[in-house]
Design brief:
The complex is a heterodimer of chains A (206) and B (290). With 206 residues, chain A is α+β, with helices and mostly antiparallel strands. Chain A has five helices and 13 strands. In chain A, strand 1 and strand 2 form a beta hairpin. Chain B is elongated, with a radius of gyration of 20 Å. Chains A and B meet through strand 2, strand 3 and strand 4 of A and strand 13 and strand 17 of B.
């Protein structure tokens, strides 16, 4: 782990991979050091935002270095099933890219178990990873001006569900009617770091 | 207990202390841009620390009291007869009219009792980037005032400095990705003047000055951003992030503005010039390490 400076009220921890990030995030949320206001996991880093009236980056670094977080030992998060209609406009193109028929792409997307690694881009937008997933699906060369809410998409090593209408460059596989971000719910975001996700093909259920 | 908005001015929003502790769900902090002036406004009218206020950008707000209310303005002092940093009662039917700010950009208007606005994700702050929270204040809006909770502090006028006009010096330290830039970028940042541009907003202060060039061109995986992060997008012109900054970002952060100085940055207006000053130990040219 590398500890990088991030101003007088934060600390950025850089880790080897996404599993180590989730393990560190879990360790920090289970045992939150005093004065930490926000813990922000990302692809390779965990940002700790602190209250400078309570602690300092130096003091926080000392307590973080004492913590142990072992990747792979992380607790299993809650499992959420996301029902999907696989009729997205990019399904065929992505299947061709992977050299398989569309049905095979859907089978792979639904049989792999996904985990929310981190959130970003928009409130409630989770970046989902899966150990069995072939990484590196390129983004669309031209992002769409408007992606409908509930769109189930792929980009890079990630899968995600657009929480609401927004521009976006991810490849769209299908859509879900499950609201992944609902401000009348507490917490509003359904897909939070550590949550496990299984996509369910609605067409196969009929 | 209500106030009626007759004119909102160029841009007025409801703000409080923001959405702490939700960044892991992709929900940024938001809240008042100049936290110090916001906190002072609530203190002066005896409100709880997190009460909702108006953040008035470039003045222009006109309100009519529909009951007797105690109000205070802090932050940017606006032209006009209304006392500043001094709690005053606005009588039923009276109007408050804020002119253009004398210096600074953002004026905080706190009402004794706080603004009673529905919270969204545990805050009454308008986040313009995430599109969360109350709508931007518009003409005809009726603002409800909450019940007074705390005792008045008994302060007639708070003796606080005005937002700075002219050139300002802001404290910075090396950011997490300083090693993604050519060795001269750091010394260039510290030795140059940067001008605040007019496309600055609650998300960030966009600056114009010498280009800060990268030495690494691979893609940086997105990482958590702080308020005050000085990020360099592909244009090479820095952005200093303010209250509504994105939760994560994929462009490298060269430097971070000292947390105390971010509030001063939130009062800079287009055309003002900024110079960045680092702690002594970081002032010499950065040694590039691998």
């Amino acid at each position: 782990m590398r500890v990088l400076p991030s101003g007088t009220a934060a600390l950025l921890l850089e880790l080897d991979d996404i599993d180590s990030v989730l393990a560190m995030y879990t360790a920090l949320t289970d045992n939150r050091p005093d004065g930490v206001v926000d813990i922000v996991p990302a692809a390779r880093t965990v940002l700790l935002v602190l209250d400078p009236t309570v602690t300092s980056p130096a003091a926080l670094e000392t307590s973080v270095r004492r913590m142990s977080a072992r990747p792979g030992e992380r607790r299993k998060g809650e499992l959420v099933e996301v029902p999907v209609t696989y009729d997205g406009p990019d399904l065929t193109a992505v299947a061709e890219l992977l050299g398989c028929p569309g049905e095979e792409l859907v089978r792979r997307h639904t049989t792999n178990e996904w985990t929310v690694a981190f959130c970003g881009f928009a409130p409630g937008f989770g970046y989902l990873t899966s150990p069995g997933w072939p990484s590196d699906i390129p983004r669309r060369s031209t992002p769409r001006r408007s992606v409908p809410p509930g769109s189930v998409a792929l980009a890079g090593e990630f899968s995600g569900v657009y929480p609401r209408e927004s521009p976006g460059g991810w490849q769209l596989l299908g859509r879900t009617s499950l609201p992944v971000f609902d401000l009348s719910r507490e917490p509003a975001a359904l897909l939070r770091p550590g949550t496990r996700v299984r996509f369910v093909n609605l067409a196969a259920q009929r | 207990m209500t106030l009626r908005v007759l004119e909102p001015g160029p841009f007025t929003t409801v703000q409080d202390a923001g959405r702490a502790g939700q960044a892991a769900m992709g929900i940024g902090r938001s809240g008042a841009c100049d936290r110090r002036s916001y906190a002072l406004a609530n203190r002066l009218v005896g409100n709880a620390a997190g009460a909702a206020v108006l953040e008035v950008t470039f003045g222009g707000l006109v309100l009519r009291a529909e009951c007797d209310v105690m109000l205070v303005t802090t932050g940017a002092r606006c032209a006009g007869p209304w006392p500043h940093n001094a709690p005053t009662v606005l009588r039923t039917g009276q109007r408050l009219r804020l002119g253009a700010p004398v210096s600074g950009v953002r004026t905080y208007l706190a009402v004794r009792g706080g603004l009673a606005v529905d919270a969204v994700a545990a805050s009454r702050s308008t986040d313009v980037l995430a599109r969360l929270g109350p709508a931007v204040v518009a003409a005809g809006d009726v603002l409800h005032v909450g019940p007074a909770v705390g005792p008045l502090p008994g302060v007639d006028v708070a003796p606080v400095p005005e937002p700075e006009a002219g050139d300002v010096v802001v404290g910075v330290s090396l950011g997490p990705r300083a090693d993604w830039f050519v060795g001269e970028a750091w010394s260039l940042l510290l030795s140059s003047m940067y001008v605040v541009t007019s496309d600055s907003n609650r998300i960030g202060l966009r600056l114009d000055g010498p280009l800060l060039e990268r030495c690494r061109f691979d893609e940086l995986p997105s990482e958590g951003l702080v308020r005050g992060a000085l990020q360099i997008p592909p244009s090479g012109q820095p952005v200093v992030f303010l209250a509504d900054h994105p939760v994560t970002g994929g462009y490298p952060v060269l430097a971070c503005v000292d947390d105390d100085d971010v509030d001063r940055c939130a009062q800079l207006r287009p055309g003002q010039r900024v110079r960045f000053r680092a702690p002594r130990a970081q002032r010499s040219a950065m040694r590039v390490t691998s």
